Predict the 3D structure of the following.
Amino acid sequence: MAELATIARPYAEAVFRIAQPNSLAAWSELLGEMAQIASVPELAELAHNPRAENAQVSEIFLSALKSAVTPEVKNLVAALVENGRLTLLPEIAAQFQTLKNHFESSADAEIVSAFPMTDAQVSELKAGLEKKFGRKLNTTVTVDQSLIGGVKVTVGDEVLDTSVRARLEHMHTVLAA
């Protein structure tokens, strides 16, 4: 895993330099889309097929993109295909997001709730979390009914678990000891 991160880092940094500062959000979205396409098993198989020409693989990959294909995007895809690194796109996207968050003094926050949350509830929770963590948060919200109630928030390597399931597990640990 560390090897993939090491190989992907120069690509992520190069894209970050191209995107900075005006189009970070657009590149982040584009890299996310590219990572999804690169994760398709048939495309990965094609990319590693010695019979497939680099230009053909690049053309197929670019045709799968819904976003606009700029010369920079073509060059990135061509470089990745030529070096046999097209399957690194998920790691490149993750590292780019980390660079973007650091540049913007923000972080990604994953909120898992036991029940669907309204926009007002998410905004209120986000405001409190931003105050607690001292930075802007880019939130994604998912629902996991196994939490029973409450929320579980993950920001980087910090986890704030106020779910009923976590409380029950804690009570079980205390009573079993």
